[in-house]
Amino acid sequence: MKEISIDILDLVSEDRDIEHLPNFEQDDYLVNDLLDNLLEAMPLVLNILKSKGDDLEEDYSVAYRKCYFCLGMSEILNCKKLIHLLRILEFIVDYGRIKKDFSKYSMIYVTELIFKTSEKILKDLAKTGSTSIDTSDIILECDSYIRLPLEAHIQESNSAQNEYLDNDNLLTPKRESNYEINGDNSEIPEDFKNNVFSDNLKIIDEVEYLNFSSEKLELVNDFCDEAFDNLQKVELALVEIEESPDQRDKINEIFRYIHTVKGGSKLLEVKKIEILAHEMETLLDDLRTAKLGCSEEIIDTLIEGNIVLIEMVSFVRDMKPLANSLDYLVNKLLLVREKNSVSRKPNMQTSLKKEVNQVKISDNSSIDNKYRESIAEENIRVPASKLDDVLNTASEVFINRIRLQNDTEALSGSLYFLEKLIRSSRLERISEDVKLIGEKIVDLELEIISQNLDLDIRRSKSGRIVKQIREIIKTDLFVNLEKIPEDIRLSLRRVEEFKKQLQQNVDDLEGLSGRLQTGAMGFRMVPIGNLLNRFPAQVRDLSRKLGKKAKLTILGADTELDKVLINQLADPLLHIVRNSLDHGLESLEKRKALGKAEVGEIKISAYYHGSNAVIEIVDDGAGINKPALIKKALKSKLIADEDVENLSEKEIFDLLFEPGLSTASQVTELSGRGVGMDVVKTAISSIQGNVQIESEENFGTKVTVQLPLTLAIVGVLLVSENGHNFAFPVLNVVEVLSIESGSLKQVGDSLVFNYRGKTLNVNALSKFLDFPPSIFDQEELLIIVLSDGEQNLGVIVDEIKGQQEVLIKQFGSLLSSIEYVMGCTILSDSSLILILNVWELITHGSDTPLRLENQESGRKNRRSLRSVHTVLVVDDSSLQRKRLTNMLKRVGYSVEAAVDGHDALQKLKTNDFSVLCVDIVMPLMDGYEFIEKIQTADSVIDPVIFLITGKKITEGAERRRLDALKVAGLFYKPINEEEIINAIDKACLNSAM
Fold this sequence. Notes:
By secondary structure, the protein is an alpha/beta fold. Strands 12-16-17-15-14-13 form a 6-stranded mixed sheet. Strands 4-6-7-9-8 form a 5-stranded mixed sheet. A 5-stranded mixed sheet has the order 18-10-11-20-19. Helix 2 (56-77) runs antiparallel to helix 3, helix 2 (56-77) packs across helix 9 and helix 11 (296-317) runs antiparallel to helix 12. It starts with 18 loop residues before the first strand and ends with a helix.
């Protein structure tokens, strides 16, 4: 717990006096911010103190952080009345947090009293910049309640401190150093030197070790996140000021950002950040009050200071010592203040003062209502991994909704089947027949009695049988037989009602899961401005290194993309911007000679186009010299001489994406090393994007990058080959074609197709992914035309299974290097589907091209021979049954299916089968029993039998039983298509071929 003095309960003169804010015109925003935070904290803190939540420690820590933050802001504002009140409040909340009890010493009452008094003070300050509220009575009331726990706390702290010192738990001592300002000290007036924190001068040249107390440790992450955001905005705003110096509002904005960083570092007692931010703040204050005139040197110095602040904040985040030496930078800040003072620039002083005099203070008459009605929105920062977990969960909910929909449809099918079964059972007719039998039994008894026979003997034989029949038909089963259909129908109606309710729940779940998935996806979307706003300062720095003048304009900074995409776009986009600076923009002399503006312009635009995002980088430079580019390509042997005349403009510009090609005439820090646009294309393609170049000589170049909005949820086209299912991103699917097999031509090692007047290379997925290929012997073939934005590829598939939107699940590190695969997804039937990387399929190609030459006649002959044979597939699993059935039909066999052994026996009575494929484990009658029955039956046809099972059979009784059946073969699930087709072909076709 923080050390505190009993003096906080003593009255001071400021408690009674009228208090004025000396810099209200500059600090009015701080008053409003503090009022915002206080109004937000008050109900939250009071609610926590009054209630007993599940996690008291966390709740009380939240309350303490809120109060501590308000105290810190009041210290920055330097309002004595507020500081006094909020220091007492800090102790109350801290004490109750440690003791886990706010029920004593009227702590809740005092807390509410301090909050309400502070609110009144801030509203006074917001209106006029001063307050006359007398807080002495409030302090005295606090003293009457709080003195006792405060004295007890001080006594406990003294005891703990003595024990701490005895254990030698001291901070790492800092080395002594006499600080001297470098450079020409005569140029720096004494009042400038004294502006540096005189008590802490030695700190700026020493290593600062971080040693946060427990309560301050909780604030570190919030401070770092806020500081990074503010400092990034500072960098962008500084560049804007240099381009238009007379932007007082922008200077005030930068001042607020640096002021906030300084305030946060002061709360955490990080002296180096506080000192540097203070010096930058002082320089900015001189700018906004027209004491200094804006210059390139000032902007350079502030940018340099901003970079050092970012570095030190990163050290704080990682809990590393701050080893930055600030003496040079602080000295530089002092020098530029003196050097650029407007006292030496009277003309600029006049214009700036005129601007300052024209600025009106906004009317605050409605400020009281504004803060009564609104409370600031709070942002919560969470790790990206947690957001991914939410997105994955949302996807699972979506998948389960589809499963429920499928189950509901299956239930509807079952109900229809039951109704059909009842209609076909004719139970009413059976009931009538039973009644007729009863009547006939009575007639039979009378006839037996009437005959002149030995009645005792007759009754002992025939009479007993008749009596048994009569008793059977009088049982409940037969008596109530006519009621059974109606009972079943009533039950079916109830089930139908349940099904309708289930369908309604599924429909509701569809809406909820859709909103959940959309909302979760929104967590990952961030404005591209978070990336692009880093570029203006870099363009400014690079253009100066190149001796050029350039202005960067950013449009569409609020266009949102997946954070994963933005992280991977930084290097490619910076490379393109560097190319525009180095290769695109001409030198100052050349631009003047061409009649162009001295300052070259680079414009980055981001916008949505359909389901994609488009980023355009346009410059007004020299454009691309096509003859020079072709010459380089010829020299690098990327093209042949005879190809030059046939190259389109697009194909010429695409040469820039070839590895090792550079049009730079000399090697510099930025270019000419052969590491060029090929790196950009590879990076963009790896995130499912494409890049194109357009250029006109002497007018400039445009580079267009097209990207999906996200890599998490994508539309996919589901396809299959030879029983293997895969998915292509819909963004990469150009067209689906159904073509005659004869239109494919073998040219060398490649299979090609004339696609709209252009040659389209065609291959099969089996050749890329190394699994047994399909036969592809149909008269018409399905071809998926894929594109990576530049090149096309045709892929032959057996079947198109539909289109879905799915969540891509990335592979772990062990599987990250799998070729041709970008991830996987889970479908509603729980099957795992690989999503293929189209760019790798097109770029890397396959080592084993698909060959169809000299196979046409053989395929037709084999298919014709297979068509005369019928295969019976017996399996209780609909999935396995359907898979094997489709597999055999695809290669030409006639196929029928049975759900179990009984069903198969019925089919054998009416059909002749060449081959039986029988599952072993089935209900009612398993595979063994079924085969034994057909082998012992008298039959002219003796089919070839293959057994299929999912369990391993080695030794024992089951192995002996299997051997006794003498089947043609045993296949284990999942069935290898090539193996079973070869086995069936061997059994059916060998004698015919």
